[in-house]
Amino acid sequence: MALQATYRDAGPVTVVDLSGRITLGDGSALLRKTIRGLLQDERKKILLNLADVDYIDSSGIGELVSGFTAVKNQGGELKLLQLTKKVRDLLQITKLYTVFDIYTDENAAIRSF
Amino acid sequence: MTAGAKHLEITLETQVESVNLAEEMCLRVAEAAGFGEDDCYRIGMSVREGVINAFHYGNQERPEKKIYLAVDITSEKLIIHVLDEGRGFTLADVPDPLAEENLLSTSGRGIFLMRAFMDEFDVVTGRTGGAEIVMSKNLPVPGGNSTNGRGGEGTAPKQGA
After folding, report:
1. B161 falls in which pLDDT band (50, 70, 90)?
2. Domain chopping of chain B, boundaries
3. Which ipTM did the prediction report?
């Protein structure tokens, strides 16, 4: 399924709800465009909700890392919410599980910023 | 080739759509061969990463170049070959994506994922002079009591090099 992205405000935090696959091509490009767009709007506290993302390939992982770095370089924070098992496993074996701040509860994630 | 062995091959264009096409084709083959859901995911992901590697690094995204995908099913394993028309590379030269200095790299995890998800993995020089990825997954054991289809491994991917 092609990636879809919508975002909403939760106080100072922007929650981005993603659904579908983050893979080479349109999926990775949409994630990049979404994060860069938020940064342009001065939204620098970003929570990516991955509850409905069941597939990420190396290109998608690279885009997550790229977004994380871009937000951090602008003085913001990018955190992850509700990983599916496949995505969690991928981040664990690539050692990125310790790089990202990851939450299972949205309210707790929002409070953490 | 032994009795009952099967061979499929397809020539792919150097374009993003080929990645999905290759993944879908190999997923169907893996399902037909009896692999469970978890192993199908790993095989599909590995094929995906192999073709991405050929598309991006091997063929440098040049549309005049081709990607050659072949799948063999023997009595023991599913074997996948992904050949490009690039200059080839040596596995020893591929940076370790788990090294501290590479953790925040935005690329370079494809080889690692293929190694982690498949039972055997190697890169050789193919007939085109480009890199040929050769990787295999042992067929599930009929009657196995694993939750992973007809007898694969657990659900968590194994740690690879």
Report:
1. very low
2. 6-138
3. 0.92
Candidate from A24, A65, A89 with C-beta closest to B104: A65
Half-sphere exposure of B113 (CA within 13 A, CB side): 31
DSSP state, A67? H
Q: Break chain A into its structural domains and give their ranges.
A: 4-111
Above pLDDT 90, what percent of chain B? 84
The average confidence (pLDDT) of chain A is: 97
Distances (CA, A) of B74 to A58, A66, B80, B102: 29, 41, 11, 38
- Bridge partners of B122? B134
CATH classification code of B6-138? 3.30.565.10
CATH architecture group of domain A4-111: 2-Layer Sandwich (3.30)
pLDDT of residue B156: 44
Query: Which residues in chain A have Cβ-Cβ distances shorter than 8 Å to B110?
Result: 58
Q: Which residues of A touch B (CB under 8 A)?
A: 23-25, 57-59, 61-63, 65-66, 68-69, 85-86, 89-90, 93-96, 99
Query: How far, in Å, CA of B18 to CA of B63, rounded?
Result: 11
